[in-house]
Write a structure and sequence with these properties.
The protein is an all-alpha fold. The protein has helices spanning 15-18, 23-32, 37-66, 72-84, 88-105, 112-132, 141-165, 171-183, 187-204, 211-250.
Amino acid sequence: MTDPPRTEGCDAKHPLRDMAWSRAGAIAVVLAGAPSTRVVRFSVRVGLLVAGSVTIAVAVAVTLWNGLGAGPLDVFIGAVRTRSGLPLGPTVWLVVGSMIVVSVMLGRRPGPGTVISPLIIGAVMQATAAMLESVDAPDALVVRIVIHLLAVGAIGLGAGALIVSRLGAGSGELLASAASDRSGRPEPRVRMAIEFSWLVVGVALGGPVGLGTILLASTIGPSVAVGHRIVDGAVAQTSERSLAYVAAAASPAG
Protein backbone atom coordinates (compact mmCIF):
# COMPACT_ATOMS: atom_id res chain seq x y z
CA MET A 1 0.00 0.00 0.00
CA THR A 2 1.43 3.37 -1.01
CA ASP A 3 1.24 6.53 1.02
CA PRO A 4 -0.85 9.47 -0.28
CA PRO A 5 1.11 12.16 -2.08
CA ARG A 6 2.63 14.79 0.22
CA THR A 7 3.37 18.41 -0.51
CA GLU A 8 7.03 19.31 -0.17
CA GLY A 9 7.83 21.39 2.86
CA CYS A 10 4.81 20.20 4.88
CA ASP A 11 5.28 20.25 8.65
CA ALA A 12 4.76 16.82 10.17
CA LYS A 13 3.31 18.50 13.24
CA HIS A 14 0.35 19.75 11.22
CA PRO A 15 -1.21 16.68 9.55
CA LEU A 16 -4.29 18.68 8.53
CA ARG A 17 -2.17 20.66 6.08
CA ASP A 18 -1.06 17.44 4.44
CA MET A 19 -4.67 16.84 3.39
CA ALA A 20 -4.68 19.91 1.13
CA TRP A 21 -3.93 17.76 -1.93
CA SER A 22 -7.62 16.82 -2.11
CA ARG A 23 -10.81 18.88 -2.30
CA ALA A 24 -11.88 17.66 1.13
CA GLY A 25 -8.48 18.59 2.49
CA ALA A 26 -8.69 22.09 1.02
CA ILE A 27 -12.08 22.68 2.65
CA ALA A 28 -10.80 21.31 5.96
CA VAL A 29 -7.80 23.65 5.88
CA VAL A 30 -10.02 26.70 5.29
CA LEU A 31 -12.48 25.75 8.02
CA ALA A 32 -9.71 24.84 10.46
CA GLY A 33 -8.16 28.28 10.07
CA ALA A 34 -11.48 30.10 10.50
CA PRO A 35 -13.25 30.90 13.77
CA SER A 36 -16.33 28.95 14.79
CA THR A 37 -19.52 29.90 12.97
CA ARG A 38 -21.30 30.33 16.27
CA VAL A 39 -18.59 32.68 17.51
CA VAL A 40 -18.81 34.75 14.32
CA ARG A 41 -22.59 34.98 14.49
CA PHE A 42 -22.54 35.99 18.15
CA SER A 43 -19.86 38.60 17.41
CA VAL A 44 -22.06 40.05 14.67
CA ARG A 45 -25.01 40.21 17.05
CA VAL A 46 -22.93 42.01 19.68
CA GLY A 47 -21.65 44.39 17.00
CA LEU A 48 -25.21 45.17 15.95
CA LEU A 49 -26.18 45.80 19.58
CA VAL A 50 -23.31 48.24 20.10
CA ALA A 51 -23.75 49.99 16.75
CA GLY A 52 -27.52 50.29 17.24
CA SER A 53 -27.13 51.66 20.76
CA VAL A 54 -24.55 54.25 19.69
CA THR A 55 -26.70 55.33 16.73
CA ILE A 56 -29.78 55.78 18.92
CA ALA A 57 -27.81 57.70 21.55
CA VAL A 58 -26.34 60.16 19.03
CA ALA A 59 -29.68 60.65 17.27
CA VAL A 60 -31.60 61.31 20.49
CA ALA A 61 -28.90 63.77 21.62
CA VAL A 62 -29.37 65.59 18.31
CA THR A 63 -33.14 65.83 18.85
CA LEU A 64 -32.54 67.35 22.28
CA TRP A 65 -29.96 69.78 20.88
CA ASN A 66 -32.26 70.73 17.98
CA GLY A 67 -34.79 72.17 20.44
CA LEU A 68 -37.98 71.08 18.66
CA GLY A 69 -39.02 68.68 21.40
CA ALA A 70 -38.10 65.13 22.31
CA GLY A 71 -40.04 61.87 22.16
CA PRO A 72 -42.45 60.90 24.98
CA LEU A 73 -39.94 58.92 27.05
CA ASP A 74 -37.21 61.52 26.45
CA VAL A 75 -39.61 64.25 27.59
CA PHE A 76 -39.99 62.35 30.86
CA ILE A 77 -36.22 61.77 31.12
CA GLY A 78 -35.62 65.48 30.48
CA ALA A 79 -38.08 66.39 33.22
CA VAL A 80 -36.42 64.01 35.71
CA ARG A 81 -33.04 65.44 34.77
CA THR A 82 -34.25 69.01 35.34
CA ARG A 83 -35.89 68.20 38.64
CA SER A 84 -33.09 66.04 40.02
CA GLY A 85 -30.10 67.93 38.69
CA LEU A 86 -28.50 64.64 37.58
CA PRO A 87 -26.36 64.47 34.42
CA LEU A 88 -28.05 63.07 31.32
CA GLY A 89 -26.33 59.65 31.40
CA PRO A 90 -27.24 58.74 34.99
CA THR A 91 -30.78 60.03 34.43
CA VAL A 92 -31.19 57.65 31.48
CA TRP A 93 -29.84 54.77 33.57
CA LEU A 94 -32.18 55.62 36.46
CA VAL A 95 -35.34 55.79 34.34
CA VAL A 96 -34.56 52.81 32.11
CA GLY A 97 -33.33 50.76 35.05
CA SER A 98 -36.61 51.43 36.86
CA MET A 99 -38.53 50.26 33.79
CA ILE A 100 -36.55 47.02 33.69
CA VAL A 101 -37.09 46.42 37.43
CA VAL A 102 -40.85 46.94 37.07
CA SER A 103 -40.90 44.58 34.09
CA VAL A 104 -39.13 41.90 36.13
CA MET A 105 -41.59 42.39 38.99
CA LEU A 106 -44.42 41.89 36.48
CA GLY A 107 -42.90 38.61 35.31
CA ARG A 108 -40.76 39.49 32.28
CA ARG A 109 -37.03 38.73 32.25
CA PRO A 110 -34.69 41.02 30.32
CA GLY A 111 -32.13 39.75 27.84
CA PRO A 112 -28.47 40.79 28.01
CA GLY A 113 -29.07 43.46 25.38
CA THR A 114 -31.91 44.95 27.45
CA VAL A 115 -29.40 45.74 30.20
CA ILE A 116 -26.29 46.52 28.15
CA SER A 117 -27.89 48.81 25.57
CA PRO A 118 -29.09 51.50 28.06
CA LEU A 119 -25.61 51.62 29.61
CA ILE A 120 -24.13 52.38 26.19
CA ILE A 121 -26.91 54.80 25.25
CA GLY A 122 -26.65 56.80 28.47
CA ALA A 123 -22.89 57.26 28.24
CA VAL A 124 -22.82 58.07 24.51
CA MET A 125 -25.83 60.39 24.75
CA GLN A 126 -24.20 62.40 27.52
CA ALA A 127 -20.92 62.65 25.61
CA THR A 128 -22.70 63.70 22.41
CA ALA A 129 -24.85 66.27 24.22
CA ALA A 130 -21.72 67.77 25.79
CA MET A 131 -20.08 68.06 22.37
CA LEU A 132 -23.16 69.71 20.86
CA GLU A 133 -23.36 72.33 23.62
CA SER A 134 -20.68 74.35 21.83
CA VAL A 135 -22.70 74.40 18.60
CA ASP A 136 -25.78 76.57 18.15
CA ALA A 137 -28.90 74.96 16.70
CA PRO A 138 -29.99 76.50 13.36
CA ASP A 139 -32.51 79.34 13.47
CA ALA A 140 -34.47 78.33 10.36
CA LEU A 141 -37.45 76.15 11.30
CA VAL A 142 -37.30 74.20 8.04
CA VAL A 143 -33.67 73.22 8.68
CA ARG A 144 -34.49 72.14 12.22
CA ILE A 145 -37.38 70.01 10.98
CA VAL A 146 -35.10 68.33 8.41
CA ILE A 147 -32.49 67.64 11.11
CA HIS A 148 -35.17 66.23 13.38
CA LEU A 149 -36.52 63.90 10.70
CA LEU A 150 -33.00 62.71 9.85
CA ALA A 151 -32.46 61.98 13.53
CA VAL A 152 -35.71 60.00 13.64
CA GLY A 153 -34.49 58.00 10.65
CA ALA A 154 -31.22 57.29 12.49
CA ILE A 155 -33.18 56.15 15.54
CA GLY A 156 -35.07 53.76 13.27
CA LEU A 157 -31.83 52.29 11.95
CA GLY A 158 -30.46 51.92 15.45
CA ALA A 159 -33.62 50.24 16.66
CA GLY A 160 -33.52 47.96 13.62
CA ALA A 161 -29.99 46.90 14.53
CA LEU A 162 -31.09 46.11 18.09
CA ILE A 163 -34.00 44.02 16.81
CA VAL A 164 -31.81 42.08 14.39
CA SER A 165 -29.26 41.41 17.16
CA ARG A 166 -31.91 39.39 19.04
CA LEU A 167 -30.10 39.94 22.34
CA GLY A 168 -33.13 41.16 24.26
CA ALA A 169 -36.13 43.46 23.92
CA GLY A 170 -35.80 47.15 24.57
CA SER A 171 -36.89 48.42 27.98
CA GLY A 172 -40.05 49.98 26.52
CA GLU A 173 -41.03 46.80 24.69
CA LEU A 174 -40.28 44.72 27.79
CA LEU A 175 -42.43 46.92 30.03
CA ALA A 176 -45.29 46.97 27.51
CA SER A 177 -45.20 43.18 27.18
CA ALA A 178 -45.16 42.70 30.96
CA ALA A 179 -48.03 45.14 31.49
CA SER A 180 -49.99 43.49 28.67
CA ASP A 181 -49.54 40.07 30.26
CA ARG A 182 -50.81 41.30 33.63
CA SER A 183 -53.68 43.43 32.34
CA GLY A 184 -54.82 41.08 29.57
CA ARG A 185 -55.04 44.00 27.15
CA PRO A 186 -53.42 44.08 23.68
CA GLU A 187 -49.78 45.09 23.78
CA PRO A 188 -50.06 47.93 21.20
CA ARG A 189 -52.74 49.63 23.31
CA VAL A 190 -50.71 49.16 26.47
CA ARG A 191 -47.63 50.60 24.76
CA MET A 192 -49.64 53.60 23.57
CA ALA A 193 -50.98 54.18 27.09
CA ILE A 194 -47.47 54.00 28.55
CA GLU A 195 -46.08 56.43 25.96
CA PHE A 196 -48.97 58.83 26.65
CA SER A 197 -48.24 58.59 30.37
CA TRP A 198 -44.56 59.46 29.82
CA LEU A 199 -45.65 62.49 27.82
CA VAL A 200 -48.26 63.76 30.27
CA VAL A 201 -46.07 63.35 33.35
CA GLY A 202 -43.04 64.75 31.51
CA VAL A 203 -44.92 67.86 30.39
CA ALA A 204 -46.32 68.34 33.90
CA LEU A 205 -42.77 68.23 35.28
CA GLY A 206 -41.41 70.64 32.68
CA GLY A 207 -39.94 68.27 30.09
CA PRO A 208 -38.83 69.46 26.60
CA VAL A 209 -42.01 69.09 24.52
CA GLY A 210 -42.74 70.75 21.18
CA LEU A 211 -43.31 70.22 17.46
CA GLY A 212 -40.54 67.66 17.39
CA THR A 213 -42.46 65.51 19.88
CA ILE A 214 -45.36 65.27 17.43
CA LEU A 215 -43.02 64.61 14.51
CA LEU A 216 -41.23 61.84 16.39
CA ALA A 217 -44.41 60.24 17.73
CA SER A 218 -45.97 60.15 14.25
CA THR A 219 -42.93 58.88 12.34
CA ILE A 220 -41.00 56.62 14.74
CA GLY A 221 -43.12 53.55 13.98
CA PRO A 222 -42.52 53.60 10.21
CA SER A 223 -38.90 54.60 10.82
CA VAL A 224 -38.23 51.53 12.98
CA ALA A 225 -39.96 49.28 10.44
CA VAL A 226 -37.83 50.65 7.59
CA GLY A 227 -34.69 50.53 9.72
CA HIS A 228 -35.34 46.90 10.62
CA ARG A 229 -35.81 45.98 6.96
CA ILE A 230 -32.62 47.79 5.90
CA VAL A 231 -30.42 46.27 8.62
CA ASP A 232 -31.88 42.79 8.22
CA GLY A 233 -31.32 42.90 4.45
CA ALA A 234 -27.76 44.20 4.85
CA VAL A 235 -26.88 41.46 7.35
CA ALA A 236 -28.39 38.77 5.11
CA GLN A 237 -26.50 40.06 2.06
CA THR A 238 -23.23 40.21 3.98
CA SER A 239 -23.73 36.65 5.23
CA GLU A 240 -24.31 35.39 1.67
CA ARG A 241 -21.15 37.11 0.44
CA SER A 242 -19.13 35.65 3.31
CA LEU A 243 -20.36 32.14 2.58
CA ALA A 244 -19.56 32.60 -1.11
CA TYR A 245 -16.05 33.79 -0.23
CA VAL A 246 -15.44 30.78 2.03
CA ALA A 247 -16.74 28.42 -0.67
CA ALA A 248 -14.49 30.02 -3.30
CA ALA A 249 -11.48 29.85 -1.01
CA ALA A 250 -12.19 26.18 -0.27
CA SER A 251 -12.46 25.22 -3.95
CA PRO A 252 -9.30 23.81 -5.58
CA ALA A 253 -7.61 26.06 -8.13
CA GLY A 254 -8.69 25.49 -11.66
